[in-house]
Amino acid sequence: MPSQNPPDLRKLADEAMERYGFSPKFPKNVLSEVERLNDEIIPEERRSARDLRSILWISIDNHDTMDIDQIQFCERGPDDEILVKIAIADVDHLVGKGSATDRHAAKHGTSIYTGVVTYPMLPVRLSEDITSLHPKKDKLAVVIEYAVLSDGSIRHGEIYPAIVRNKAKLVYEVVGEWLENQGVFPYEDLDIPALPEQLLLQHEAAQKMKAERAKQGFLDLETIEASPVMVEGSVTGLVIQQESPAHSLIEEFMISANRTLVARLNERSYPMIQRIVRTPRNWQGIVEEAASYHYRLPADPDVQALASFLIAMKKKDPESFPDLSLTIVKLMGPGEYVAIAPDEDSVGHFALAVTDYTHGTAPNRRYVDIIIQRLIKASLKTQPAPYDIDELTMLAQHLSASEKAAKKVERFMRKAAGAVLLRDRVGETFRGLVTGASEKGTYARIIDPPVEGRVVKNEDGLKVGQRVQVRLLNTDPEKGFIDFERI
């Protein structure tokens, strides 16, 4: 029988943070260091930066996002080109390498989003105030330029410091619905006459870039990520964020911005950290999964063949496509960070179908982005690289490990929240999908609510991607346990 009182999820989140090597609270020396920061842009910084405050910069993010890392602007160029500017919050100018704040951020590596509580990588005063690109405030940024050509390919452009001012903070769901349906413009109250045209131009640029990457074989995956809905500290449900044209827009813009950062560092022969996804570790499993849909993939890994399979399946059965996507993600293996020496060939990003990719557009949320920002700023001043390849190698290994640990915290809290929701449904039967099958255990994700649990009975013979009927045997929110029996 479930306990009368639901568990304290905030306490469980803190305990999960500590269990996986994180600190749920900032050390006092970090908080005091950030408290002393001046949020004014000093004259020297203004003189060395371009004044781009008059441009119609906009941000698109979640409705509750306060740590705004990037804003963007487009304009038409010659020969059907679209010129893109991406402004990235300059976090490095306030977070010095080796400072207490920097050391703490390096240890955590990323902000952690449990749905119950968010653990920011940087203190709120810094990430959600001083460096965040809020509307109607002058902010220091690093601007990345590139051109989207008529065929959707990109031409890398300049990178430089600038003073920017966000004109409009927009929301994914609102922008996405308008781009899909083209109804009444939802932001008329902002009184920015050029805003609809700016959004349509950005959408056009993103669609061209996406179409070009599709030719190269990028994997258009669509996985389900469920987040707890909290009301006065209690879980009332799980919500799945639906992908929209607005999400695709930001994804395409940031991919090209990150590729432009890599191009700049290559030009300067600087070492760097890149984001990679290696050739799938279980390609045979992917081949077998495709065969179950009567689709034949080659024996050797082929990203274009896999992309064609995914496109066909998405058109055939869009409702179950997230389940297939999850299976492919599990069989491919995780992304990771690797240090790349000057003139060294990159492993590449199998899922994105690019060989020149990094993470440098979210410095308030990921530490690797601060590293890339420091390298870029040093290159702009023609200074020696602030990191050597040995230091970057150690950092890349640590950040890959910390990312993996952060995902464990987030996954545990999703299970804990799911266990709370299912406390009174022991004995019920659910439709599910096998998401893991190894010596460590067999796992399945049920459809409604979308939570994952362990199949502890009759699990023999189950394979990743297999649809199953399971009965709920037990829940334990404190341990994040949800136990199923295969029927």
Secondary-structure blueprint:
Layout: H1 9-19, H2 28-35, H3 43-48, E1 50-51, E2 57-61, E3 70-76, E4 82-89, H4 100-108, E5 112-113, E6 118-119, H5 124-130, E7 138-148, E8 154-171, H6 172-181, H7 195-216, E9 226-231, E10 234-240, H8 245-267, E11 272-276, H9 283-292, H10 303-316, H11 321-332, E12 336-340, H12 367-380, H13 389-421, E13 429-438, E14 441-446, E15 452-457, E16 467-476, E17 481-486
Parallel strand pairs: 1-8, 2-8, 15-17
Antiparallel strand pairs: 3-4, 4-7, 5-6, 7-8, 9-10, 11-12, 13-14, 13-16, 14-15, 16-17
Helix pairs in contact: 1-13, 7-8, 9-11
3D shape? globular
Structural class: alpha+beta
* Mean pLDDT level: 92
Residue runs with pLDDT of under 50 for 5 or more positions:
none
Order of helices and strands: HHHEEEEHEEHEEHHEEHEHHHEHHEEEEE
Task: Tell me the Rg in angstroms.
Answer: 23 Å
- Strand tally: 17
Largest sheet: 6 strands, mixed
Number of domains: 3
* Strand coverage percent: 15-25%
| Helical percentage | 25-40%
What distance separates the N and C termini? Answer: 22 Å
Count the DSSP helices.
Answer: 13
Describe the structure.
The protein has 487 residues and is an alpha+beta fold. It has three domains: 9-277 and 337-417, no CATH class; 283-333, no CATH class; 422-486, Nucleic acid-binding proteins (OB fold (Dihydrolipoamide Acetyltransferase, E2P), Beta Barrel), CATH 2.40.50.140. The chain contains 13 helices and 17 strands. Strands 1, 2, 3, 4, 7 and 8 form a six-stranded mixed beta sheet that branches. A five-stranded mixed barrel has the order 13-14-15-17-16. Strand 5 and strand 6 (118-119) form a beta hairpin. Helix 9 (283-292) runs antiparallel to helix 11 (321-332). It starts with 8 loop residues before the first helix and ends with a strand.
